[in-house]
């Protein structure tokens, strides 16, 4: 691999072009007949750059007249070619290496093309300035899933270098191109944008087959139309395919969810043999070596729109019924091995969608559960899959895993610390009242093992979060046990799952009050500048087994599940603390109520904060205060 200064020098005026690259092996490729040529410049090789050349804006570096290929061609463009790119920040030598992909005619989302000569590298620059790049393009049987040293150079593009000048971002929140990549922050329980802002998830987990949408190419079996959300599509939003209306339902759904504060959508790119059986990235349901380029380009257009609206993609790569699908279908591979079809799937997903700013990867739903298929991943497989995926993923996005409610200890324990590349625990909790304790268990266990995980609550048991019209007490249990229970235990956020109608959910307005309840919490944290990322669960600071607390040196957040007065042990130093009460219910005032001012005793002494509504209230409330207000701005 070239260092950045070597690439920069090779492109400097007056220097013989690409002296270093000319030393690369020169051979004949299967794609281009005749004698091989030395590596050449980007311009001479027909390289174009698409997109805004700005920090945190995904851009495309395209080979426009590359090897001609077809989705069903004798030379499989997904398996028998391997294109990759290394981008180098000339000022710092920082490198970002990403897999690339065949893009048919380069406009397949619109044209539906199945043939073409465009090969694409997607890249999101983390910094402004001069970036150089180096292409690595090889051909050969199954070269996409073999070691990087394998394959025959594809001339004249293998070894090509070029450069781009990246300007600072010009976008504003909620556009994620104003925030950059959502990344793991080592040592923290929370994800953080490259801009420095912290992230607390407010997500939709239903329908799990969000991508089972009939408006995508090759998706006639899709269960969803989202017709109720076509009115939410606006002029200028993405369109694709031959029909002007093809995109409107699902794009409108994203618009609606973003408008009510939802910041994450759960989506599975592959549900074959799963609950819905209506989503796959391939040209047909059982063809695991050939990908549907136009469908994937349409997914990509949707995901880019999610970025523009401030919505993170929670991409869940398998579900329990198909977690061994690749190994079962790949002849010669043991069911508990590692199929090349899986390697190819991981590569295609990262290459096509890894440039998205708001992205969380999840290796699979209910991993390790021996369901009706009798198939399940083993500890060794999970470790191998995680390591392989982490090596492909170039930016540092979260890599999580989901389990059956009863399978957490069995699945998560062998993955703690440096035993695996896992960085997040995606919890399914059967009994809602257990959320606080179970989040706390895995926050503590991962920290104790030397690598703090981001722990999120992504599925709740029973019927799940019912629509507003069916929910008793206006989602009181969801608000108390799940939303606030997770927050005060140190969770990185929640997603709402509706088990009773998951696969059939078409109109997200049915949960409008649940979205509003969750958004109310997020607005409270931002308005009061509560630095949740710098606070730790300290339930011992508030009296009562069902009361919870987050604390830092200068701020204390207490949640009282049944209301009433708060009897608290304030952090040092002794002195006057000020704060107030907040009512989490919809329809209550948005600001703090009942100003509180108490003199903190020495450490170990307790103070009583009286409720502004008296002792008789039985509704969960929280109080927040400190000797001084936090300085950090609001989170996203």
TrEMBL record:
Residues 53-136 form the DUF5060 domain. Transmembrane segments: none annotated. InterPro entries: DUF5060, Ig-like_fold. Residues 597-636 are annotated as: Disordered. Pfam families: DUF5060. This is DUF5060 domain-containing protein. It comes from Porphyra umbilicalis (Purple laver). The lineage of its organism: Eukaryota, Rhodophyta, Bangiophyceae, Bangiales, Bangiaceae.
